[in-house]
Amino acid sequence: MTEKPLVEIRDLKRTFDVSKPWLNRVIEGAPKQFLKAVDGITFDIRRGETFALVGESGSGKSTVARMVVGLLPASGGEVIIDGVPIADTSRAAEVRRLRRRIQMIFQDPYASLNPRWRVERIIAEPIRALRLAESEREVADRVGELLSLVGLHPADGRKYPHEFSGGQRQRIAIARALASKAEFIVCDEPTSALDVSVQAQILNLMRDLQDRFGLTYLFISHNLAVVRHMASRIGVMYLGRIVEIADGKTLFARPRHPYTRMLLNAVPDIAMTGRMREAVKGEIPNPINPPSGCTFHPRCPFVFDRCRREAPPLEEGVACHAVREGRPVAA
Amino acid sequence: MTEPVLSVRDLRVEFATRRGILKAIDGISFDIAEGEVLGVVGESGAGKSVTGSAVIGLIEPPGRIAGGEIRLAGERIDNLSPQAMRHIRGKRIGMIFQDPLTSLNPLYRVGDQLTETIRTHLDLSPRQARERAIELLAEVGIPAPEKRIDGYPHEFSGGMRQRVVIALALCAEPDLVIADEPTTALDVSVQAQIIALIKRLCAERGTAVMLVTHDMGVIAETADRVAVMYAGRIAEIGPVADVVKHPLHPYARGLMGAIPSLETDADRLVQIPGAMPRLSAIPPGCAFNPRCDRTFARCRLDRPEPIVPAAPADAGHRVACHLYDSAEAEALP
After folding, report:
1. pLDDT tens-place string over residues B44-100
2. CB-based contact (8 Å) between B79 and chain A?
3. Domain A7-101+183-324: homologous superfamily in CATH
4. Angstroms from A128 CA to nearest CA on chain B
5. Chain B contact for A252, CB < 8 A?
6. Half-sphere exposure of A21 (CA within 13 A, CB side)
7. What is the number of CB-based contacts under 8 A between chain A and chain B?
8. What stretch or stretches form a coiled coil here (chain A) (predicted)?
9. pLDDT tens figures, A276-315
10. A149 exposure class (CB count in 10 Å sphere: 0-12, 13-18, 19+)
């Protein structure tokens, strides 16, 4: 690889303290309890690509997203963006300049926009805060430009968020993300709250903007079809770990990890090819008390002794003992 | 010919608001036969859930059924008293809602909720009802049902709770089950399990199912027939293979193209411009005409009624679009 990746995630970890209150612990003699939401993940995002994280609820995808943008401090490991570790306090000035280039789009377009602010003020906020415009007139021009960029009318800036539909609000959120001339946008389930036809509009818009401005996306979703459509590379998460990482095409054509296979199998078949869906056994376990060894072993059809003892490391894009040892994992 | 389990004719549901009357459902008709799964799809606000609520008699004021007929096994149920409706609801029509946590009472054990429902509808002793409840839990795939029956809803995971809700819906052996977005709150791997379960149980019992969802994948896999709703009307209804693979109505076409797929590569998704109109501002003529790329003069004047399409004339396929009116088809290139 010639170019250095824009984002490097190194052994990123996050634990949450989910202990009972102090008094209960003293009375009941209960120990402190920790939830490992993200348990040491490593990946790179290249400039201009869309890297997706998929997984079921509770797999830690959103926690990763929040750590990458710096909304949540990491318990361990590093997030390095353009060579600067964002948690490095000795390089505060650099980190601050970096912040401008990172933006986030949230899942719920009803909760992520301030209902008391006019849309123009919402979009202008990053421009004003980062002093990206010389005059108020320039701010207004830029807001109008951003609104037309995302397919709204410049006059819509006078309205309040409640006057817009879900899809239009998501467009406003995108305009706000672009207002600071961001290069790297973390999108946490950006279309999950939208209807399919509106989802298509937003996904198309996101791709157009990527082509136009060379944006880099970290795309978080539970919807495999959406991820396949958007991402160049995909990481599959299960209980706080990445179990498989591959190119979009490869992952869907030749999934390797048994969990990835299971997920792909579970997607309803809209093309009606007559492919039989395999009924998956079990559900994602409680992350407070995860299974020993490979956390997927209680649901895995190819489990053997070693899986129960040792957690498999992510090597050559897959974390699975069976794949490593070349044992058959195809049903 | 046997009578359909559910027969809806020209149903209209209106909501009186300060700004006038909103027509949430504007004249829809469909049948569901015994053992059949009818999928109802559409985007938010299309009227899918209101249709379901109308059938089970749960339209709350200011909403009201303003016209049409709903028949359950030939008997009219839309004009029954609330008391009479209560006997039908749960006994003859079962319901499965989207959020399994809110459809179970958090303060009662799962077993109490099941036995209460069973004893309301069936003449059984408490012991018999409990046995029946355990059987049902086993049937919906809850491991160790004789222990779990004494658990509270919060002790169950999302998928397990939805199984309990399914057991509740089926406990009185209803003729019809209305499932409103039963898998939307669940993860894909669990979703597949729940869909398979609903399908198997209803097939075994010959229960008719009305499956309301916005997920085309679920419909494609589960339903026998599908109705595509748009702005309170049925745009297209027909066998699921025809509607999903060869949709006719321009809206249905756009909707299918908008779904990213696992099988085919597309650089861009098909995009329907604009958004569904608000109920207060449904355009005259065909409600879809401002977003449609094939509109012509008549679309703006005349509201299309569901017709048997001229070209691929399949049994039971209906489309509400002027393009498929044979008289128009001749006039168009």
Report:
1. 888 888 899 899 888 888 888 998 999 999 889 988 888 888 888 888 999 888 777
2. no
3. P-loop containing nucleotide triphosphate hydrolases (3.40.50.300)
4. 31
5. yes
6. 2
7. 121
8. none
9. 556 567 777 777 788 888 888 888 888 888 888 888 988 8
10. middle
